[in-house]
Structure formats: C-alpha cells, structure tokens
Amino acid sequence: MDTDRVCVLEDPDEQPRVRKRPKQTPSPHAQRNPAAAFSWSILVWGGGQIYRGQGGVGTVLLLLMVNFYAHPVLVWLYREPVLAWLKGFAVTPSQMLEAATLFYLSGLLVWLFSAEHAYLRTCATRSTAFRGIGSAWLPAMCSVLLPGWGQFLNGQAKKGTFFMLIALAGFFAVPTVLGIWIVWPSLDTAVDRLFWEKILVVLLLTIPAVLLIWPLSTFDALKVSRDEIKKEPLLKRLEYANNRRRMFGWSRGVFPFFKRTAAFAILLVLFSTIVYYYGPRDYYFARLQQLQVHLSQQHMVLIPQLIDRLLDYI
Predict the structure, then answer these.
(1) Are 108 and 171 in contact (CB under 8 A)?
(2) Suppose 163 and one of 3, 150, 217, 221 were both cysteines; which one would form an S-S bond, judging by CB atoms 3.0 to 4.6 Å apart?
(3) Is 314 helix (H, G, I), strand (E, B) or coil?
(4) Mean pLDDT, consecutive 10-residue segments, the chain of 314 residues?
(5) Measuring CA to CA, which residue among 116, 125, 113, 101 is closest to residue 35?
(6) According to the model, what pLDDT value does residue 1 have?
(7) Is 18 helix (H, G, I), strand (E, B) or coil?
C-alpha cells in the first residue's frame, strides 16, 4: 500500500485526484564528516567551518590566521623603525618578549579552538554518531605530523584534545626558549632575568614530555584504528574486558600482550642500566660543567643550580 498518496475530494461528483506528498530531504550538513572538518581546520583556520557551511565564522578565523602570520613578518621586515617607535614609549625588551609570547600563545589556542569547534559542531549536526574513519593507517600518519590528530580521526575527541594540548605546549616551548635566548643579553635588570629564567626552566622541562607523547599518540592512533572495540566508551570496553576474562581468563582475555610488554619493559630497564653505568660519563660530566660555567657568565642562577644538583647525582 502506498502511504505517500493522498486522495482529495473537493466535489462529490468529481473524480478523485491524487496528490503526492513532498518528500522530506535531510539537511545537507546532517552527514558531514567530523574528521574532514577537523582536518580542514588544522590545515587552514576556519577551513572546517567553511566545509560545514559556516562561512561567516570560517572567514573570521581565516582572517585571524592571516594576521597571525603576517604580523611577525611585517615586524621583522620593519624591525628597526618598530623598535625605535617602541623605545619612544619606554617599552623594555622584557615587555616586548611578553607581548610576543602572549601573541604566539593566543594564536595556538585559536588554532586548537578552530579545529575542535569544527569537529564538535559537525558531530552535533549528524543523525548518526561518528565512529571514526575507515582507514587503518591514516590516523597514525596524521599523529606523526601532529599528536592528537589521529585520535580525532578515530572519533576520540577527549583523548585527541589531551594529546593536542601537550603538543601545543611543545610548539609553544621551543620558539619561546629560542626567543628568551635571543633577548637574554638585552635584559638589564635582575628581576627580568629571574622572571624569564623561571619560565625557561618550566619550558625546558616541558619539551621532553612532548617528545615522549609524540610516539605514544602515533601508537595509540594506529592501535585504535585497527580495532573497532577500542573506539567504544570506557565503560563498554571494561564490560567487554570482563566478559573476555570470564571466557579466557586474565592472561588471554584481558592482557593478551602481557608477555611482550613485560619483555619490552625488561629490555628498556637493561638498556638504561647499561647506558648509566657504562656510558661516557666523563664526557657528559665535562660538557655539563662547561654549560654551567657559560650560563653563570650569562647571569643565570636557577639553571646552573639545577646542573650542579645533576652533577652531584651523576
């Protein structure tokens, strides 16, 4: 029986006419791909918003991106008149560095906001939940370029945000360390030097964490993309793990790769022990002493003290 046909009788003597109901077409943005929206915004600020039909928001973000990259170039090209103009207002090198770091940090945050906004808004307009893309290798390749990118392609926004925040901390740390090192000779007060040295210590401690999180993000993206169960919520995964424990036991059901992981951990401990006891200790000791003397001559205080404690530990 055709339910889309409606008979209309306006006159009892008139033959019935058949009127077809107009078909309801789904929204053109209902099934947009959140992974594509996120990726476009990673490549170009506002690209994901334009992809999903938010031309106004996308254009604003695109203009912010142009300003973010154009201003440093213009300042560098006209640095001499800009510096002379700033000195006329008694702006110190420390204040210039503060403004530059805040400007750079705000750009990184807007970049992250653009990508996450495009992803979440696209997920909200879908009629079905996003479970990640079908590729088994693309998420890992994207996480090699940017930690957290692959997690968003797998449909794991919270985990991707965690990795991306750590990655952006690294992107902020490296240029800021270089900027502090360049501006350091111009810092003429002990208060300014101590302030920036504290920031320098925090940033130097941040960089190793980023280097560790990079391969972890890549491995996680690859592992999840090849196993649909790992894309499930945490409670569901715990329920599945409990079911596997009942069926196969702890070793086969819950920790199937325990032996490999334990063997890898033992090899890592052995390698660290060999490097610690049989590495070129005198070489690194001498280099650290030279670095300590050099930094002390540059009127640094905190980092030479940290190096001194490290030398006592070695």
Answers:
(1) yes
(2) 217
(3) coil
(4) 50 52 48 91 94 91 93 88 84 90 94 94 87 88 94 91 93 92 89 92 88 89 79 61 64 61 80 76 83 88 88 76
(5) 116
(6) 46
(7) strand
What number of other Cβ atoms are within 10 A of residue 60's Cβ?
15
Q: Are 52 and 39 in contact (CB under 8 A)?
A: no
Two tokens at 130? 């996003």
The string of DSSP codes covering 72-127 is HHHHHHTHHHHHHHHHHTT--HHHHHHHHHHHHHHHHHHHHHHHHHHHHHHHHT-S
Predicted model pTM: 0.76
Residue 19: its H or E element:
strand 17-20
Q: Give the contacts of 194 (CB within 8 A, at least 6 positions apart).
A: 301, 302
- Which tokens is 303 given? 């980092």
146 closest CA partner among 117, 174, 120, 170: 170
